[in-house]
Design brief:
By secondary structure, this protein is α/β, with parallel strands linked by helices. It contains 5 helices and 15 strands. A 7-stranded mixed β-sheet has the order 8-7-6-3-2-1-15, with no helix packed on it. Strand 9 and strand 10 form a beta hairpin. It is globular and about 45 Å long. It starts with a helix and ends with a strand.
């Protein structure tokens, strides 16, 4: 009898495994496609970033930034160390303890957590897994202040923060750190903020960061919108960090490269810093298409394009 029960159990498990494999292979549902994508990444090597920043050499009397990948930018703003939407590890997605269950990077993050300087201020634009990555937030060095979209701070991992601030659009806070102060303002963008689909109460935002009379605009995630022309009143901006990828088929939530350039122009930004491309395959457009279209959109103003490869460093001219 025991053998019969075990045989039936094994047969049942085999039938379920076969049905699951068939469903994963054939279903057009989001969950099946997600599993197919993850299985397709099995064993794939992730190449190093083309460039490796050296933040220890940066001048504290300037604005220097490096694109680490996706929407993660490391900034030395006159000695204040800022990082935006940090995603530092090979995968993004649901934190399952030893790692994350989600997309694998196409290119490694340009700096590991251990290579980062101590962070004074972390900016988190919204709760999506590719922007609010709990392992990365937990791995930041130092005791940073966190400025976030409203109704997102409950997702922060347990660690020491010097302060935590949630901002709604047009609210601002002066953040005090051991390396000086910065004024951070929340600005309207066109996106959405739910992390799991049902928590639609969560906010989403862009930021304006001001220090020593100079200003950066951080676009977060946004679709094309005319609202950036109203942000001009908070400028002038030395640079705008703007998303340019994941628009096909997500055009309702992510702008095209041409729209990103137009929005930065409408806000009055001097330098254009494109992010949110080349790091993860989150959409259908070819990996290099967003930066190629951006270069075409700025072909008459090539000196305005801040960077185009992961790991590059830019010193914003005075």
């Amino acid at each position: 009898m025991a053998r019969l029960v075990n045989r039936r159990g094994l047969l049942g498990a085999g039938v379920l495994a076969g049905a699951g494999a068939a469903w994963t292979s054939l279903s057009s549902s989001w969950s099946a496609r997600f599993l197919r994508d993850r299985l397709g990444e099995w064993g794939r090597d992730v190449p190093a970033a083309p460039h490796t920043p050296a933040p220890a050499t940066w001048d504290d009397n300037a604005i220097t930034l490096a694109w680490l990948g996706h929407a993660t930018v490391l900034v030395n703003f006159y000695g204040l160390r800022i990082i935006t939407d940090p995603t530092l590890f090979p995968r993004i997605g649901v934190d399952i303890g030893p790692g994350s269950l989600g997309p694998l990077r196409l290119v490694q993050c340009a700096l590991t957590p251990d290579q980062l300087p101590e962070i004074d201020l972390v900016l988190v634009s919204h709760a999506h897994f590719d922007h609010l990555d709990t392992p990365s937030l937990g791995a930041l060095r130092g005791n940073p202040a966190a400025v976030m979209a409203w109704a997102t701070s409950d997702l922060l991992p347990s660690r020491t923060y010097s302060s935590v601030h949630e901002l709604r659009w047009n609210e601002s806070v002066r953040v005090a750190t051991g390396r000086g102060d910065a004024l951070v303002r929340s600005i309207e963008v066109k996106h959405w903020g739910a992390r799991l689909g049902r928590d639609v109460h969560r906010g989403y935002t862009g930021f304006v960061v001001e220090r020593e009379g100079r200003k950066l605009l951080i676009g977060g995630d946004t679709a094309g919108t005319d609202v950036f022309r109203t942000h001009r009143r908070f400028g002038p901006f030395d640079a705008a960090v703007m998303p340019i990828g994941a628009y096909d088929p997500w055009i309702r939530y992510h702008c095209t490269p041409e729209q990103a350039v137009a929005m930065a122009d409408a806000a009055g930004a001097r330098v254009f810093v494109p992010v949110h491309h080349q790091s993860f395959q989150l959409s259908r457009e070819p990996v290099t298409e967003p930066i190629e279209r951006t270069e075409c959109a700025l072909r008459a103003e090539r000196d305005r394009l801040g960077l185009n490869q992961i790991g590059q460093t830019l010193v914003i001219p005075a």
